[in-house]
Amino acid sequence: MVAVGITDTEKIQKRIRACDYLVVAQLFLQDNFLLERPLEFDDIKPRLLGHWGTCHGIDVVYANLKTFFGDDPNFSFVLGPGHGFPALQANLFVDGELEKIDPLATLNEEGIKYICKNFSWPDGFPSHASPLTPGVITEGGELGYALANAYGVCLGHPEKTVAVLIGDGELETATAIDSLNLRNLLSGSNNGTILPILHLNGYKISAPSIYARKSERELNEMIRGFGFTPIHIRSDNPEEFQSALSEKVESPFYVYESIKGYGGPNQHQMAHQIPLKNPKTDENELKILEEWLKSYHFEELFNPQEGFIYG
Predict the structure, then answer these.
(1) How far apart are CA 192 and CA 194, in angstroms?
(2) Domain segments of the chain: what residues?
(3) What CATH class is the domain 6-308?
């Protein structure tokens, strides 16, 4: 295993916590974004819309890729599950990328209030990746095109490396599965490098995914059949993730295994969309939401005077 410095490991873990918190705040809160007082019904948005299930996994993948590739201008990330937009927005926000195109998304308390209140809000940010998102190629409402788009980015650009996160439900689509054949067409020296990452969290919108029901051997043989080398990442441990990215193999295909909805309320572990439906009217759900938010200890990662301090 490649050694990852304790500073890097802690930084990755703290960044994931910060982004997970911002995801939950975007989904639920219209006020009290730093939990400076106990949550009240009036702090909760009147209409809850968005997807929690895939977001923690997106935060884990993005944090590890950012650490591994740093500020390499030839590296790009393509997100297949565009419905996990609050995770993408959280990461773009903490990196200062969102502020470059939206001066209201400042890295302070006002910026947090701005992105959280305006997620799935009239005249605000949509629940899916959209043309307003920095670097977006296509919108995220329809799954299946991420891998093909990634190969398109690399076409004729051998200097480029593109990591593309593919949902396990997404890989069931005809477009996604057929796009795996592009490795045979576009793997020459005139084109860039594609790093597919399958987010194997076990479930799609309403049922287990096909790939979650396959044995590891069966899944690996399918991946090999398309000409890739499967590399499994079985935990959120940054050392394991960084080690996997460091492996020198031909045409790697990463399988990141996680639990759908991880980090959310236990009784809603497999939630695809909003795991708590009535925190605006139900005292018990409001308490569960407050405990969920507090579990990230956001006060250790951000304060109004210094901003983000997870690094």
Answers:
(1) 7
(2) 6-308
(3) alpha beta
